[in-house]
Design a protein that fits this description.
204 residues; elongated; mainly alpha
């Protein structure tokens, strides 16, 4: 069970937890407050993130039944990386931060974009899980998969808080998350084909 195919599922899902329930779901409101956005703008951003999170999850479920799921995951992680790259750019200097704050719709646009790729990885991930572990250890693998997500969530909540206390900025946390999401996208693209996985399983 603990071979290459297993880790190709676990690693991206860990990154998913780090960047969603860890980083964004925990720190979006403190980040918006730190930037200086109004309460109404912040609440609109959080609400729209939840709404488009639901929409993205439903669309991903439909696509998971029709597309190559490893490529779908790679695209989702890549889009999520570039949504965070937007925050990295907008918070990189005072001039851009002023533009970001002046045009509050940019925060709303970010929330919509991130929401679409927030929990949308769940459907293709579980689709791959059911394909690679059709019988036997699927219960154990599912448990470990979600454990990795929660461990990522815990670290993604804690580490940005520590970094913010030290630097008074979320910049480093966004940069780390961007790099992790690029790695998750690459890992998803390189996911072994089912035939290769079955050979690996027989060897292991």
């Amino acid at each position: 069970m603990f071979n290459r195919g297993f880790w190709f599922l676990i690693i991206p899902f860990f990154v998913c937890g780090f960047t969603t329930t860890g980083l964004m779901d925990t720190h979006l409101i403190p980040f918006a407050q730190h930037c200086g956005f109004s309460v109404s703008t912040t609440s609109a951003a959080v609400s729209l993130l939840a709404v488009f999170n639901t929409a993205g999850t439903l669309v991903a479920g439909i696509l998971a039944d029709r597309w190559n799921n490893s490529r779908l995951l790679a695209i989702i992680y890549l889009v999520r990386a570039f949504t965070l790259a937007f925050l990295v750019i907008m918070t990189s200097n005072h001039g851009l931060m002023s533009i970001f704050l002046e045009h509050s719709w940019l925060l709303v646009l970010f929330s919509i974009s991130f929401g679409l790729v927030d929990f949308s990885v769940v459907a293709p991930t579980l689709k791959l899980l059911s394909s690679y572990f059709p019988t036997g250890a699927i219960g154990m693998v599912t448990g470990l998969l979600y454990m990795s997500h929660q461990l990522g969530s815990a670290l993604g909540s804690y580490l940005p808080g520590i970094l913010f206390d030290k630097t008074n900025s979320y910049q480093i946390s966004f940069e780390i998350s961007f790099i992790l999401l690029i790695i998750a996208s690459i890992v998803s693209v390189c996911f072994p084909k089912i035939q290769e996985y079955k050979q690996l399983s027989r060897v292991s």
